[in-house]
Design brief:
The structure is a single chain. The strands form four sheets. The protein has a six-stranded mixed beta sheet, with helices on both faces. A two-stranded antiparallel ribbon has the order 7-8. Helix 12 links the parallel strand 11 and strand 12. The chain is an alpha/beta fold.
Length: 475
């Protein structure tokens, strides 16, 4: 199909670009090492012929490592920070493999007297140069493809089945990714109240009974099924009908069904079985995350100490009340802990003792509190919670036990959020889902984070959080 061909072309272009960049980086690294001498040469300049002998090995090793790092499986319209991190890991690992191989490969010197030794400094220069060149070439490839895809004749025409909450969420996200070359041309929906209407600037062009006619008349490339979980029988029927139309079919699970995204298939004596993958944050991964949390919290407290001192002085000066505010929250495995924050509300914010959501322009927030909240500085004392093991730097935001008891009965799989440590920041928060926003959408993003955790994802969320903090300072 057209979309699959585009992905294959994209992967081949990336592969070709990686090879050109890597071989170019190899030659450039030789010049930097022995010509420019970015690292002083002590044993004389070896002939480039010895190093060129390694090019065929590099040209095979690098694409193999990149492939197993998933750098050709998923297409991104633009180079993203998580892809840069994966590239850094892949280049570093490939360089280590090359260095290990060269400890055993010792060709005879030119004079035939002693084995030739490759420069370890050259390998370091090569790895750094290669990462820079590969990132640059991939960015150029993605930019050129994105510009081509924005042309009307190159766009993929998409039909979304379902104009409800889930369908609108899908279209909203597609509208944010203009570089993907995707154009949503319409909805199909059977609800009489939605017929002949428009949602997120996309018209409802018919009902599910019109699927075949609409696909043919509007030259549809891809059909996205975004129906609620209660319509699973209708979804199955539509998959069967759309399968006869030679278009690509996507099924978006209901927002709280993210487990399916990590589902794989096994075979039990010929019987297909769906296997739900384990949570990534177990075993060694959990240990790595905890080490990163402790190191990050220690560094964060050292850096934040002056800010905390100044903030404490302003809080005391405003109303003379306490600087810190503690609140019971629910964390890992449903256990309660005391969460620390800089106080941003008046001392009597909850005179009746009943918990209330914070609202926009809440009159309970103090003047200094508004600034601290806008800059997200009120959360800094939670670095102590991270050191104590109550929380993580990144994870689902913890809720008060009263709200947990309420939501666990209303939202399926809500308690799955507590399979990992609560976080100072999280995926839902950096996407703007906080305060009085939709709980279902927040839980959906939390479950997605839990099921798709990686160190790169944590770094990406921390980077987005840092940008939000800087934006708060500029207000």
């Amino acid at each position: 199909m057209m979309i699959q061909r585009r992905r294959r072309v994209h992967a081949l272009l990336l592969l070709a670009g990686d090879l050109v960049a890597t071989i170019g980086a190899f030659v450039l690294a030789y010049w930097l090492r022995f010509g420019l001498e970015v690292v002083p040469v002590t044993k004389g300049e070896p002939g480039i012929e010895r190093y060129l002998e390694l090019v065929p090995f590099v040209a095979v090793l690098w694409p193999v490592v990149f492939y197993f790092q998933g750098l050709y499986q998923r297409e991104h319209a633009r180079l993203r920070i998580d892809e840069v991190l994966r590239l850094a890991v892949a280049v570093g690992f490939a360089a280590l493999v090359l260095a290990a191989a060269l400890t055993f490969y010792r060709p005879v010197g030119a004079d035939g007297s002693q084995p030739f030794t490759y420069s370890r400094a050259f390998l370091v220069v090569f790895a750094v140069t290669d990462l820079v060149m590969v990132v640059t070439v991939r960015w150029l490839v993605s930019t050129v493809l994105a510009r081509l895809r924005r042309r009307r004749g190159m766009q993929q025409r998409v039909l979304v089945v379902g104009a409800g909450e889930l369908g609108r969420e899908v279209v909203g996200r597609l509208h944010q990714q203009v570089d993907w070359g995707i154009r949503v041309v319409g909805f199909l929906d059977d609800d009489p109240g939605r017929r002949n209407g428009a949602f997120v600037d996309v018209p409802v062009v018919g009902t599910t009974a019109d699927l075949e006619e609409i696909v043919e008349s509007m030259d549809i490339d891809q059909v996205v099924l975004a129906l609620p979980l209660s319509s699973h029988n209708r979804t199955a029927q539509l998959i069967q009908r759309a399968g006869q139309l030679l278009v690509e079919i996507k099924v978006v699970p209901d927002l709280l069904q993210y487990y399916v995204l990590r589902a794989g298939t096994e075979e039990l004596d010929g019987l297909p079985v769906i296997s739900l993958a384990q949570v990534p944050l177990q075993g060694f991964n959990a240990f790595v995350k905890r080490v990163a949390d402790v190191l990050g919290a220690v560094v964060g407290l050292v850096v934040a100490a002056p800010v905390l001192a100044v903030a404490a002085a302003f809080i005391r000066r405003e109303d003379g009340g306490p600087v810190l505010y503690t609140q019971v929250r629910t964390g890992l495995d449903g256990r309660s802990f005391h969460l620390y924050k800089l106080r941003t509300m008046t001392v009597d914010a909850e005179p009746d003792g009943q918990p209330r959501w914070t609202r926009s322009n809440d009159d309970r927030v103090t003047r200094i509190g508004r600034f601290l909240r806008a800059a997200h500085l009120d959360e800094l004392p939670q670095l102590v919670n991270v050191l104590r093991g109550d929380m993580s730097l990144v994870g689902p935001r913890p809720e008060r036990p009263e709200f947990v008891d309420k939501f666990r009965d209303q939202i399926p799989d809500y308690m799955a959020r507590h399979r990992v440590r609560a976080g100072m920041t999280g995926l839902a928060q950096v996407e703007g889902l906080k305060g009085d926003t939709s709980i279902r959408r927040r839980v959906a993003r939390d479950l997605y984070y839990i099921e798709n955790w990686s160190l790169a994802l944590d770094l990406k969320i921390l980077w987005k959080t840092a940008r939000l903090v800087m934006r708060g300072f500029r207000r």
